[in-house]
């Protein structure tokens, strides 16, 4: 049976964690969390940490290349 859990960070619905191959796979519903989408995690706390990091990364300005 497939289980799922909503992923909510700071009161914001970001996506869904679903069971797969003995772990949890993240499916993003918020474009800001796409960097973490599709990754497989052994446990939900690791998934939530990676999703939160993806949200922080999405707010960072793009790095400029040295000319």
Shape: globular
Indicate the mean pLDDT.
88
Q: Strand percentage, roughly?
A: 25-35%
Q: Summarize the biggest pleated sheet.
A: 4 strands, antiparallel
Over the alpha carbons, how many angstroms does the gyration radius reach? 13 Å
Q: Name the strands of the widest sheet in spatial order.
A: 1-2-3-4
Outline the low-pLDDT stretches. Answer: none
Number-wise, the strands total: 4
What class do helices, strands and sheet pairing give?
Answer: alpha+beta
Give the oligomeric state: single chain
Count of DSSP H/I helices: 1
* Series of secondary-structure elements, N-terminal to C-terminal: EEEEH
Domain module count: 1
First CA to last CA: what distance?
Answer: 54 Å
Helix content: 10-25%
Explain this structure.
It is a single chain. This protein has a four-stranded antiparallel beta sheet, covered by helices on one side. It is α+β, with helices and mostly antiparallel strands and 67 residues long. The longest helix is centred in the last third of the chain and has 16 residues. It has one domain. Helices cover 24% and strands 34% of the residues.
């Amino acid at each position: 049976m497939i289980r799922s859990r909503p992923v909510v960070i700071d009161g914001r619905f970001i996506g869904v964690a679903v069971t797969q191959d003995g772990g949890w796979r993240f499916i993003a519903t918020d474009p800001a969390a796409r960097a973490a989408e599709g990754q497989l995690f052994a446990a939900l706390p690791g998934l939530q940490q990676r999703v939160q990091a993806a949200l922080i990364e999405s707010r960072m300005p793009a790095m400029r290349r040295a000319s």
